[in-house]
Structures are given as C-alpha cells and as structure tokens.
Amino acid sequence: MRVVLLGTGGYHPSEERHTACLMFPELGIVFDAGTAAFRIADRLLTREIDLFLTHAHLDHIAGLTYLLAPLSLKQLDALRIHATEHVIAALREHLFANAIFPVMPRYDFLPLAGSSLQLGEATIRWQVLPSHPGTSMAYRIESTAGGKPRSLAYVTDTTVDGSYTEFIRGADVLIHECYFPDSHAEWAQKTGHSTTSTVLDVAAAAKVGRLILVHVDPRSKGDDPLGLAPLKSKFPTVEIARDGLEITI
Fold this sequence. Notes:
It is a single chain. This protein is an alpha/beta fold. It is built from 6 helices and 14 strands. The longest helix is centred in the middle third of the chain and has 11 residues, at 85-95.
C-alpha cells in the first residue's frame, strides 16, 4: 500500500509546503483536498477517486475546485466526496456558491454513514475528533492486498487527548498533525492543534510503527521547525514530512 503526501502544511501554502492532501494512487483514495490537490491529476492511476474530507476548513477543501479539470478532461470518470452531512452542506452552500465558483462540478457527495466503508480490498474507518473548532475526523485505512494486513491512520486538526488512542492503536504508520512546537502549547489549546511532545506521547501509547508529522505551521522555517531533535527518545521512528514524501507500507 503506497501513500504520497502531496501537501504537508497547515493554514496556507508556503514556499516549502502546500496544505493537506494524501493520495493512495493505486487504490484511488485521497484524504483531504487542500491546495496540494492540483498534484492529484499527474498521479492518477485509476479512473475513479474516493476522496475523504476531515472537515470543511479552507486549507483542507480549497483544492476541490482544482479537480474540475481532470473530471472535465475525462482523466476521471467519477469523483466521490465522502464527508459528514454538515461538511457537504458547507461545500454546497459556500465553496460552490455561484458567486465564488460558478460551475458546480459533477461530483458525487456521499455522507459518511456508520463507522466504516469497504472499497475493494481496503477498509476505511473514521472517528470524530471533537477538540478542533467545528470538529474534525480521523481516518484509518486497512488493506489486505497481497495477503499482508497493513494499516495507516490519519489524524489532523486536533488537540491530543485520549479519545482516539484505541482508534490508532497498532497502525503501521500514523500521519498526525503537529502545528506547534512545545513552546506554543497555549496556542495549541486555543486553536485546537497539537504540539510535538503530545503527538510523540500518543504515538508511543498506541504502539504505532512509524510516525509522520504534518500540518506544520507555514510560518516556520528550517529543518526542525517543531523542536523534534531533543525529543526523539520519546518515539524514535518519527520524521517531519515534506511535500512529495512517498511511503510504502
């Protein structure tokens, strides 16, 4: 199971990172559609895409407008957008309002129902993250393709708490937001985001295999904007993602 991190920043794009978008090219599955979603078209390996949104904040949905082109140019036969009813209503009313985006794309909007969905050999599970303004959604993808069970959890826009530890437990890879270094813990609480130590702690508690940090503050600079280096003893198999990172599980 291969995942490409097309966008690994938060809030707004920077010279180093576009905003949230993860793609599983062989499976035709995408998580979030931030400003990095323009990169999807060049990586298409399927004729249909199932796109799962965590929430309706602009840095996670702006790229939905970019996907009109591959659908109109027949690079795609179908684009299914999976999200809560609240998020879908927000997309229809605001993002695709005639005054903002005068073409209503031929997307299929599918409200999330229950707690999981089977797509071929992949199972997508989800759980609400209540700490972010308006709430967000964590996703977990599990695949048995090739006979070996593999799993990846995606947790973004949340303050770390104990509510989802079991949901991510044992995942081969955890992709988790980490907007702030520890020195900005107060801002993390105010805005519903996470800090470096808290993410490392939850990864260790859940016994995940590998931790990838995303949704980095776009104002940050340098190779270690999260102050990760002195904290790696908490969870050694961790790295800060950059756009284009590919992971095969």
